[in-house]
Each structure stands twice: as C-alpha cells, then as structure tokens.
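Weekly puzzle thread! Below is a chain. First person to post its structure in token form gets bragging rights.
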Amino acid sequence: FPDPATLATDIEVAAVVAALLTGTLAGSDTAHAPTVKAVFDALALKAPLANPAFTGNVTAEKISPTLLCLAEKTPVNAVAASKVLTFTGNAEDGETVSIGGQSYKFQIAIGDAVAASGLLTVADTPHEGETVVIGGKTYKWRAAIGAGVKASKGLYFSGLALDGESVTIGTQIWTFKDALTEAKATGILTASANPQDGARVVIGSITYTYRDTLADAYDVKIGASAEESLLNLVEAITFDGGAGTNEGTDYGTGTVAHTSVTAAEGAGDTVDITALVPGTAGNLLTSVEYSPGLGFGAATLQGGIDPVLNEVVIGGDIEGCIDNLVAAVTGAAGA
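Winning reply:
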C-alpha cells in the first residue's frame, strides 16, 4: 500500500479541483489538460467571424487580409510633406528659389522683359524688286507703290449699235436701246384767260398764288396777258433756272426752285410740267389749279415709268454709242 504520508488529504484534492474548474487556457501550460469551462471561456473571448469588433490598437499581424476593407490607395493618417522657407533678409533682384523642381526668380518689377531686336543695315539704295525677310514676312522694294497692271480688253464697234443689242462686261449685261424704257411723269397747265388775283396753282407740295402785288414767297406776278403770267410761273418754279434773276419782281422773295419738278413754256398759252426723276413716283405729284382761267388735264402728273437697269441709249454715231456705254458703266451722266 502507498505510504499514507504521501497521499493528499481531502482538503488538498478539493483545492486542486477548484483551481482546474476556474482556470484558463495558457499557451505555456503543457502539463495539464484544460477544463471544459476554460475552453468555453477562451472561445468566448474570440471575435465573431461574421461581424468582428476590435478593441485597442489594431496591427497588421492581427488582421486577416480578407477582413481589411480600405478603399484602394486610401491613405491612413497621411501627412503631407512640408518644409519651411526662411528669409534672412529682403530678396535681391535676380535671386531664385526652387520648389518642387520649379525655379522662381525675384524681380524688382514684373513684366520688364526686353523685346528681341535686330539691326538692318542698308549699304546702298535698294534696287527695284530687292527683298528683305523679317519674321517670316518678305518685303519687296518697288520704284512706285501700286505699279501693278490692271487687266483690260478692247471692245470694238464695227458699226452703229442696233436696238436690243447687248454687251457683257464682267457680270453685267448692257443693252442698247433706241429710247430708254424709263419716262418722267408730265402734266400740262393751260390758260384760257389771264388769271385773277388770288388764283392758285398747286404742284406737289407747293402752292403758287397769283398776285397783283407780290407779298410772300411763292407769289407770282400777274402779267399783262395770260402768256406773260404763265412765263412768270415758269420762272418761279425753276427759280430762273437756278439764277433767281427775277426774284422779287416776277415772283415773291424767298421763293426757291421746286424740288420735284421743272417747267417750261409750252405751245400756245400752256406750261409743260415735268418730274425731275423718271419713274412711277412722279405719277403721285399733285397738279391742280384754283382759277376759272387755268386748267390741268389731270389731278396728278401722268406717264411716269420706272427705269430698266443697264439700258444704254444708242448715240447718233459709233462714238456716241461708245460715250454712252462708258457713261453707263462708270456711272457718269449721259447714258
């Protein structure tokens, strides 16, 4: 039998059992088997795999790569690199400082750059056609500026132009005509008796009033006969052909030439009134009279026809045709 002195007492056995029941797993304890409670307690301390919660400072050694979910290239507590530039005094003109591979220069004034320049020396008078190149542009010396030759071509007439014949110059067609299609509106004032004091003649916007004694502008002196009275009206309408010779004598002072019509003595005791400009606009000019001895054939001028573009009247000879064509092409009078 065992020596009673070496056997544990009931109290010692109970203490060992209690220690085992309340003990924990220890990686360094390889002499005793862990109790069920110790194993359960150790597993309870492990984080759940589905939703782990960490406490303390997490280190890479403690984390499985599949559980580290950070955005790609996301810095963790990243700190930008920095450095302090210290000035020991005021920067000098031309001094530089380099930051990140970029060089910066201090200047007394910004924008004081100097434009590139060069000196062209001419040893002698340039000759016609000589050139010089500056900045990619070529400049040529000429004895006279604009000495180029304009394109030209001769037009020859073998005889007098015929009605309806045409000539094309550039893109314009010019047509010769015996008479231009255009026409100026006209009217005829007839006197059956010498007008009386106060008789009125209205042409366009102007009213002429016959008077025994002149008092106002556009008054017309009553003559000794109907013919003389009509002549005085012609002088007033035309302002004596622009000369104003009889102003204040045959018509009132202040009268000026009519701006829409001209006038001339007609056959017998008549006055021919003609619009200054050809076209149908002349047909709208008023022509009325307020006198028992005066009469117009219509209440407005008649017969105005709008011009046809690029018509040229046939001259009396070849030279006349050429002159009229030149006048039409250049916009001169006479076409």
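Puzzle host: Confirmed. Bonus trivia for everyone else. The chain has a mean pLDDT of 84.
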